[in-house]
Amino acid sequence: MDDQTKAAFASASDTAKQLITLASGILALEVTFAKNIMDAKLDQNAKDLLTGSWILFLLSVTAGVCTLLALTGSLGKLDALKPTAIYGSNVRIPAFLQIVLFLGGLGLSVWFGIRALK
């Protein structure tokens, strides 16, 4: 395996790990203060935004784990690794889902925060 392919796999792995860490951290922070948030005088739509963000963050973490497993599977094949292996659908699909779900969860969290400030 050449250095560029190694770097590509390492970078993809690091990105997935960073998004898992961020999603887990935000989720943990929001759940920690959930009682205070839910006790506030908020309408049901605001609470639904927060619940939706939790679900999207949890799904993002799951997709991130799937991405890491796909990267490991690609690296562990018995055949010689081709530089294009990182672009296989087994890696691209969960990586794309992880990013989209993370951004969706982040968007709902920000939207919730804006509504809660009103």
Number of domains: 1
- Work out the strand percent: under 5%
Helix content: over 70%
Low-confidence stretches: none
Shape: elongated
Alpha plus pi helix count: 4
- Name the structural class: mainly alpha
Radius of gyration: 18 Å
Q: Provide mean pLDDT, rounded.
A: 90
Number of strands: 0
Instruction: Please provide the ordered H/E string of secondary-structure elements.
Output: HHHH
For the record, give the distance between the C-alpha atoms at the N and C termini, rounded to a whole number: 55 Å
Query: What's the main sheet like?
Result: none
Note the topology.
Layout: H1 3-32, H2 34-39, H3 44-75, H4 89-117
Helix pairs in contact: 1-3, 3-4
Describe this structure in words.
With 118 residues, the protein is mainly α. It is 82% helix and 0% strand. It contains 4 helices and no strands. Helix 1 (3-32) runs antiparallel to helix 3 (44-75). The model has no long low-confidence stretch (mean pLDDT 90).
